[in-house]
Design a protein that fits this description.
Length: about 200
């Protein structure tokens, strides 16, 4: 795949040239088989989903744009309105993956010696138009993070990375100093490596 000019043209992953197997690279440079990216619903290493990739590209494009040279009260007011709308959209996007995971938990709860019926989760995924593997991943993360333990300032990806940490509920309240004002995916991966 070739890298395009606009956010709609930027691939979620692209082929690694010269390989006999189809190896692809995520936007952070992680390599894996295309099948793995598709089965997991994003990068298996950094947990970035296609939606987060598109949001990151759009944010970069927005940052590259120049603000008007002539600052007026109207232009400033419009800019801050757009920032407010963008912040609201980002907060809603963070909640979507947890909401889908909670729905999947309602349809098919995890564990407790119960016999799972994979067809229920697969049917839900098909009905809402997504891959079963992605919905299963959202469900696992939602199960690891009860609603009252989720951090509104941390992304879903940070929650996904820290989901297996034994002290995750306390850990998420205290982001490392270098990642202030909040958690980053890299800081979360570092915390997981050191645990």
């Amino acid at each position: 795949m070739e890298k395009g000019d606009g956010p709609a043209d930027v691939p979620l992953f692209w082929s690694q040239e010269g390989r006999t197997a189809e190896i692809v690279r995520c936007h952070l440079g992680h390599l894996a088989a295309r099948e793995t990216f598709e089965a997991v619903g994003g990068c298996p290493y950094c947990n970035h989903t296609p939606g987060e990739r598109v949001a990151a590209v759009r944010a970069m494009d927005w940052g590259r744009r120049k603000r008007p040279a002539e600052k007026t009260a109207t232009a400033d007011r419009r800019y801050f309105e757009l920032v407010g709308q963008g912040t609201e959209l980002v907060n809603r996007a963070r909640a979507i993956q947890f909401e889908l995971g909670d729905l999947a938990l309602d349809v098919e709860p995890l564990g407790e010696g119960r016999v799972q019926e994979p067809s229920l989760l697969g049917e839900l995924a098909k009905a809402v138009g997504m891959r079963p593997a992605s919905l299963a991943r959202y469900r696992r993360v939602a199960a690891a993070w009860p609603q009252d333990k989720r951090d509104k300032c941390a992304s879903w990806s940070v929650h996904a990375i820290l989901a297996q940490h034994p002290d995750r509920f306390d850990l998420i309240k205290h982001p490392p100093q270098e990642s202030k004002p909040g958690w980053t995916c890299e800081a979360a991966r570092t915390a997981m490596r050191s645990s």
